[in-house]
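Structure, all two chains, one model.
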Amino acid sequence: MPSEVAEAAIESGLDVHLIGIAGEADKRVERFPHSWIKWGEVGRLFDILNKQRCKDIVIVGSVKRPDLAQVRFDLGAVKNLPFLLSLRTGGDNSVLGNIVKFFENKGFQVRGAHEIAPSLLTASGVVTKQSPERVDLEDIETGLEVVKSLGPFDIGQAVVVARGHVLAVEAAEGTDAMLQRCAELRQWGAKSRAERSGVLIKCPKSGQDLRIDLPAIGPRTIELAAEAGLKGVAVRAGHVLMADRAGLFEAAARHQLFLLGVDHDS
Amino acid sequence: MPSEVAEAAIESGLDVHLIGIAGEADKRVERFPHSWIKWGEVGRLFDILNKQRCKDIVIVGSVKRPDLAQVRFDLGAVKNLPFLLSLRTGGDNSVLGNIVKFFENKGFQVRGAHEIAPSLLTASGVVTKQSPERVDLEDIETGLEVVKSLGPFDIGQAVVVARGHVLAVEAAEGTDAMLQRCAELRQWGAKSRAERSGVLIKCPKSGQDLRIDLPAIGPRTIELAAEAGLKGVAVRAGHVLMADRAGLFEAAARHQLFLLGVDHDS
């Protein structure tokens, strides 16, 4: 993902400098202007950011929590020790939220990939060869209403609706697990398009901070939707990332699924 | 279940006559005033109902859909052929709804087990040795709100909430499958009560016809809730059946789970 975001940012005319964490980031970082840092080099991180005159930061990709016993802290890290210690506890979301606040307190703007690289997001309208039919549009409307009604509870990032029936609602289990459940429920494998029904609807939850938690779909989402006997996938246009765009479109074409970006204020 | 309902009805002073479908109902039917009928004996069914001066009917237990090629239809059945043929299609709920309408059109009242045998329902308040704590009551409140918000979509008969986080919402998969998912999500087995958190909240959906689809909990519900690391179960008082009451209370005591009947207009 980081190189996909960097390429899209460069295409839209931005200057980029990639900072990879050694042992975590991919070698592809080196295809761009870049620096490597190690865990614990917080002072060095800010030196690089200042030297490169960075004002906006995008945090992309996932890392494993480092073994703090193995980390060597530089002076900048020691100065920020209370903050670093605060990251040892809490769920992923609170850790990421604290990191965003940390950079903002130092005067940097944390941007989401959706702001810097909008071309990676699902566009508005039908973006595949297949299109939703009327019954699918009704299922999508129902799904969007379910998502909206669950907003206050911080769940419902994805739902599956088939012919007016809500088959599954995502809470803590993740979209992939929810789709696998639908496949089991329906006890049918990937069927011909004529026999399929239902749509996966995926949107950010209301109040979700897209800078640290941008919903994403990829080739595997399409594979699992096909296994669940669905006809397509609808996402909120401009708010859901397409990971491995080429692979995603290939899977959608192979399984004859539609992908629709919906303009909807949910 | 039929004999449990019959016993409870007799205890509350009602006259009962059980009509068992041969090959479907349990022999325990014979412990009460009873008749046996075969699939297809619709005329005979109404003869019995009229002879016994039945006015109220309770439909309890599950049946397999008969192989119509093997059924011998009596004259009463032939007279009602359009109705019988209508049962060949549709989901369980629409079949049961049609059966209710059929009896009502003939002048009978179809009652739910909850009306005839209220002692089988979960009473109001804490009905186990363990009690919910404040954090559990907050989870229950959240769960009831989720159920309420999902009412328009005919889902959400059960949800799991732990320390304010909604872990799972039941849609088409059933309560047992939802609890098993929670156990996997949390990747912990049955823990000591001190380490547990969360509550299963189970209620009828708004608009659910309790005469044909009464939510139920039983010993297995308790076992699965314990495996999911939950502290207890909350149900809407007077609206959720306890199947195998003795086994249910034994399981709750063994796993130190609470069971609470909530008076709440969801």
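Chain B touches chain A through 23 residues (CB under 8 Å).
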